[in-house]
Protein 1
Amino acid sequence: MKLLPYLLLFTLFSLYLGSARAEIILSEPLGFNKITCPVNSDTIVGVPFRKEGSIKSTTSSAPLDVTGQAEWKEIPLNGITLTDGALSQHYLKFNSGTRDGRWYDITGNTTTSVTIDLNGDDLTGVDTGDALVIAEYWTLDTLFPPNEATTDWSEDAERIPNGHAIVASTGDYSFQLETLLLMPNNTDDGINRSASRICYIAGGNWKSDGEILGTTPLYPDTFFTIRHLSPVDHPTEYRSSGEVLTNNFSIPIHSLTSGSHDTFVSLPRPVDVTLNELNLFQSGAFVPSAGDYSFQLRDLLMVYDNTQILQNKSADVIYYHNGTNWMIPGEMESRDDDKIPAGSGFFIRKFQTESGETAFWTNTPSY
């Protein structure tokens, strides 16, 4: 995999003539990343950037209950005016306070507030003045526009925003398929779960079993798989760009009372991150192991190798934490400085817990 992460910072200067001072306004930092997708192989990736056009605000009061919806909360906002009902494909992420880094699906909005789905969480301690950002989800159509899918290798890949990542299929039958996009199963329990959806572009649309799925959201904390089937005889490039997250980002790590559970993850960071910089163990979301024998191992970090030419690939490296360092079973040296490439996917296999609790892993940016 050829990986070229960039962090491009843009500053907008506003100069007031006739005044002795210049006012500087900082815009959102933007970034760009590209990953090579080999032929006859799976490339497991996420989106390391937020979609451009996010909205920043603060809470104008504590969250409000929503009648008839125990899992929803209304968040009153300061200093902005929204279009009523326009945020159906958006999420809210707190940037300060007791829920710093956590994000929630927006179920509706008025001109001055949004309603979010807690999805089993709570907003204990959230109060007036907590900072937040509202962002639009990437979808299949916006990340990989069907009209920009590869149909001719003479096309200029540099000119096409998605960099020819997806090769359009000629039809819906299995022998007509070229590139598949596999969506992870984030709803069922257990380990080694198969994809929940297998998508492809045909007839100018994203489809799965004949259903049109272009508006399907791509969540900011999980991965998907780009699979080139044998008719694809050229590697492609998955290109992504957008706003760089400069704040904490929190990911829920679920567990079961019996057996282990996999959480499929892609960290929205535009740079390679070392295992120590993940803050996974330090956050308390990852349980250390007493040793590297199978009966001693607890939580595991499983990392794919996107340079390996293989479909249905398993994790290439398995890590555990011994309470001091990241380790590989059977080895003696620390792996704290091993890196997870920007935009790549991995998963956390959580050992069973007594109550089947959800641990929140908060990652702090290394830049």
Protein 2
Amino acid sequence: MRIERPIALALAVSSGFAQEPPAATFGTTVVVSGGLRGAIYHIRPGSNRLPDFARLKPVGVIYASSLNVPPQSFRDGFPGVTKRFEWFAIDYTGRFWIEKPGEYRFSLTSDDGAKLWIDDGVVIDNDGQHPPIEASGSATLEHGVHRIRIAYFQGPRFEVALVLKVAPPGEDLRVFRTDDFRPPPDQWTDADAQAAAIDNDFVRVTRRTVEPHEPSQNDAFNRAIVFLDKSKVEIGARARNFDAGQVAWIAAGASLQNAGRKPARLVEIALKKPGPVTPPVRARELDPVLIDPKHNKLLFENDQVRVFRSWREPGGTEKLHEHVGAGRVAVSLPEGDVNWSGPLKHAVTNDGTQKMEMIVVEVK
């Protein structure tokens, strides 16, 4: 990657900007499918650099398919999520598809500071409190899905600006629009999903590491999330803390973002089918939660899954029990190894010298 020295811009909109209709705001509260998600923060008056977002609590979320706010009056620059028009910051994240590999040039104009990351690498550093300035950089991108992040802050009032442009190999700069970088219909929109550990008619199970401020892609399915690390995440607009081994249920369409300061390892179990009209029947004498509550603790149950935590001491053998319905996903703790089986009766023995512990997700 190459980062070039910023070049000061005049406050008036240049002829290059005139070719692109200016956006009235930095985004909308309506979710933009496949677009950028911007978490909004209030920052300390007098700030002259981008904040440490991990230390701040977001006050709202906006969405955009492009960042195209040319230099303009602060009165025209911010959506109605908050009334603040100065001393705020926005942290945009998203993913985009590269069809043609090669060197891509980027341009970032901002008032005040902004930075651009591609796949965790800084491509443009335009930070600091300053008038509208354009900075440029480039990144060599391979075919496939890439992560993008743009952090921006507005200091004192008067002018605002935030414009991100891109030039694919052999082309001129134009406003970066996520609609121009969508994957083909037969491709995954999430690079991590290509490495799904289990993918069958009932579930898609993916082990992933979510970096700080990186959102998980919205999913069309309901999901059970098993956290392998102590994590602070945002589900929708609500921040929650989870200990290692805890499980969250996330409805279809909801997003998950790592709001902590460290990477979060998790196992995501997406349910491909709705719950059955008639729930599966299990004999009480074969229900592991009922016959052995010491070793099996129910976490939650709904019309699609029953989730419980199970453990066994070294040398211990389970009581004979039954898993009914479509099958079950077992997630080992703390490693996060996963296993799928259809409906079955069994009694597992822990032949190891360490405690055996797992999360069991029974799919109805």
Protein 3
Amino acid sequence: MKNTILFVLCGAAIFMTGCSTLKKSDLTAVQGTWKGRIVQGEPAHECSIVISGTNYDFHDITDPNVWYKGTFSLREDTTPRQYIAVVNECPFPQYVGKTSMAIYRLENGTLTIAGNEPGIATAPAAFDAPEAARMELKRK
């Protein structure tokens, strides 16, 4: 009995130590204010996105009439990883309540998101997919 308890406690200690060295989740890594540009399409537009918890607030700085607010979830178990956004508010009534499927990556301090128009049920196949809008952002 004592050996079993010792084994369980040692196992828990090893597990807890291992947990502290694990990579933090992408949800934690994307929190904050990001600024960059929409690079797919002509001309490139400056943009920003604020991520707080599972809420996002996107603004096209070049065209202030384009903005989106809503909630999102991340799928870190897919390749590429997916960013799934629900549009709660925007100036385009046809998009309110719709889901926008996107892919994302975090590399060298850059957050890249490529997404399809809200209402399209699939995510882009690649970051350079012709139908996708792609943003490249740096933490502000």
Protein 4
Amino acid sequence: MVRELSSEEIEILLRESRFASLGCHANGETYVVPISFVYDGKRIIGQTKPGKKIDMMRKNPKVCIMIDQIKSIVEWKSVVVWGSFKELEGPESAAAMGVLIDHLAPSLVASGERGRSPRDVTPSEPGNIPQVDIVYTVEVNKVTGRAEIPDA
């Protein structure tokens, strides 16, 4: 049976998750991409490299993020976050990147990823061309959550 998630259940899913899908829209085009993130209780923190996603969010900061935890077709949880993109710079960017690294580093270690620093949570472009890290937040405006959990 499908049901609404409580505020507490939404908070737990946001805090425990590391990956999501981010949707952005600009110039009549909608773009949905996977992201890695951390939720700090008020906002979602992410890091990326220059590209289409950043270009679109700079043009239209209104974004939507979907976080799923899917075990089967009849056992899942899903949270949708609506918010506003904000690019960080300087000390604020460095502090947010530290929070993100602390959250994501265990995943890199567990995956056995070699030759990549835990600080670089997004790989370089093909050819190992270094690119600038862009740290951003999504200030949360609205959150909803639903789940389907089989009867015990």
